[in-house]
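Quick illustration for those who missed Monday's session on complexes.
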Amino acid sequence: MTDYRSMWTELGLDLEKHDILLGALPGMYEGIFLSQDDRPEGMAYFDFVIGEIHGLRVKELMDHKASGGKVIGLFCVFVPEDLILAAGAIPVGLCAGTQFSVPDAEEVLPRNTCALIKSSFGFKVGRTCPYVQASDFVIGETTCDGKKKMYEILAEYHPTYVMEVPNKKTPLGRELFLEELRSLKTKLETETGVTITAERLADATALVEAKRAALRRLHNIRKARPVPISGLDALLVTQIAFYDDPARFTEKVNNLCDELEGRIARGEGVASANAPRILVSGSPMAVPNWKLHRILEDSGATVIGEESCTGTRYFGSALAENDGTLAGQLKAIADRQLETHCACFTPNDERIEDVLTLAKDWQADGVVHYTLQFCHTFANEAVKIERALAGENIPLLRIETDYSDEDMGQIKNRVDAFLKMIRG
Ligand code: SF4
Ligand code: SF4
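Prediction with iron/sulfur cluster bound:
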């Protein structure tokens, strides 16, 4: 196995803490993923990526930097990867899903902040994430209040640029967002020394669109009964989309989909055709947050979709036809990004429609609404989602949790009762 310690030292990681973090991963991964029955062979690549989580990909980023390129960290799907790639830079998702980095964050941020914000911030202050260390700067966004305020503090530790995302998709809000993309383009050109031309942007968009299309293909495959891939594995694939090389990732997802389509043709699945089919909707699940999927699938359910930013909100929409000019492409990218039906918008009725459509078209027997504690936008929006689903006689279970394992038993009991009700 390659020794990356000199690279981690160069990145300024706290090696002692980092060893503890990496030491815990193989056992956890083995217990959650490798122990599953009937895994598709195509998952071997994604297992490899996780096995190299702080190794090979980080080395690729460092090689890119050594040849004069930039690496840029992101926390939200509103920031368009295409624009960054068009500037010759590599975007990496920095949202984090582990309790490990939370205590470091709580030395600075209030405890009653959502775990995703704390975990992401804690990785920077604790110096345990090579991706944030490798990034030349990070791009935050004005989505939820907790993130906005965290970015102000993060800027004391790391170069941080914040782009504005409107609260409403009015014509004024759309114009504001388009103007923000123009400003981001200027910022990227200044930082990289690369001029973003129409050709460069079209090439970058083709790469990103191919990745999104592959993820949509995988998502559509999960309509099958029995479903040919576990929710855990499908979630893992989407989580990896945020930091892997896009062209390589797309090829591997399409290979996996070829295999899964073969399984469907043979009537093979990872669970019985009668296993309760659950749609998960709500806050994003950044790697390595596998808590809810694990509980659901250990309890006999099969997760058939994620209405989430580590799910359909990330890859659901495709770029519209445009005139190919730089202005036309930017406008199309702005429109595509604003198709992300995040709870930070008001009103956000499109998200309610999305959940209903997914639940019906993917034949969900129930929906689990997942909210991270202290995430007020998703917690409040759950009220409307529950009402809409009740109108269609689709049961909903609301789960509010964080990244710790303390409430796993309690969640398991609630999930068991929910599945019993569905089976009954
Ligand atoms: S939930 Fe909202 S704020 Fe969070 S990543 Fe998604 S779009 Fe961004
Ligand atoms: S889960 Fe909620 S509170 Fe946490 S970062 Fe996302 S929108 Fe903000």
